[in-house]
Specification:
This protein is α+β, with helices and mostly antiparallel strands. The chain contains 10 helices and 9 strands. The radius of gyration is 20 Å and the shape is globular.
Length: 269
């Protein structure tokens, strides 16, 4: 009987190991939000973090990230699409034929987001006018009123990912299949956030200019943890640890608190 029970347990465990990534896949969410929480697969969350980080890097107000995020939600649902209406591609469904760049350029989220912000800041009164008016002035969409419905969700994402709302972004992630090198992580962070990191025995560490920037970078690192293979992100006295357990994925008090503007990620145990 004992042998039978052990066999059944191992059989059930094997079935669960196959099914749980389907039934409970890796996911990210923004909490502390009106109408939330809002949930996303890691790839979409990473794109949203890139949009937010580039706004902070350019010293644009959070409103810029809200408008850009709402536009990406409408145009691509935060996916970096290789197709679209006519020749539209990318996060913002920008068209090469309309002067947005080559297909390869537009499929680079950093390039596409930067191009969006370049156009955004040229719109008169962009930071005061209704979101849908400004987004339409940039995009010239066939559905000019469609952007407004995404404003609440875009605001929640932007506040969490620009660092305005600390510890509001979190992810539940399975064990990494691969890990980026420290140098590659540093280069990625520098390109999207403008902040330079330094290697540590387990990963990379940054000193941000202020606590908002620190939480932007920490949220960015969390959002890209699926790609980087990150095991842990620490911002000041808070730590996120990679896990599929809901409670374990929250930002918890750090066992070894860091200065408020220090961000550290671990890519090895």
């Amino acid at each position: 009987m004992l042998v039978l029970l052990v066999g059944l347990w191992f059989g059930a465990r094997a079935v669960w190991d196959r099914l749980h990534p389907i039934l409970l896949p890796s996911s990210c969410e923004v909490s502390q939000a009106r109408g939330g929480p809002f949930g996303y697969p890691p790839d979409k969350f990473a794109n949203a973090a890139t949009v937010a980080a580039l706004a902070v890097k350019r010293d644009l107000p959070t409103r810029a990230a809200v408008i850009a995020t709402a536009t990406a939600l409408q145009e691509s649902k935060l996916r970096n699409l290789e197709h679209g209406d006519r020749d539209s591609v990318g996060l913002f469904q920008q068209r090469p034929s309309q002067g947005w760049g080559t297909v390869a350029q537009i499929l680079d989220p950093v390039y596409a987001t930067s191009a969006f912000y370049d156009h955004l800041v040229r719109v008169p009164g962009w930071d005061r006018r209704p979101l849908t008016e400004v987004a339409q002035a940039v995009q010239r969409s066939g559905f000019p009123d469609a952007y407004a419905k995404h404003e609440a969700e875009a605001s929640a994402l932007a506040l969490a990912l620009t660092g305005d709302r600390p510890a509001a972004a979190t992810c539940r992630l399975e064990e990494p299949e691969s890990t980026w090198s420290r140098r590659r992580v540093r280069e990625h962070a520098a390109r999207e956030t403008g902040l330079s990191g330094r290697d540590t025995p387990r990963g990379v560490e940054w000193t941000a200019p202020d606590t908002r920037s620190a939480w932007m970078l920490g949220s960015w690192a969390l959002a890209h943890a699926q790609r980087h293979g990150t095991l842990r992100v620490s911002v000041g006295d808070r730590t996120w640890t990679r896990s599929m357990a809901e409670d374990a994925s929250r930002w918890a008090p750090a066992a070894e608190p860091l200065p408020a503007t220090t961000v550290r990620i671990d890519v090895t145990r």
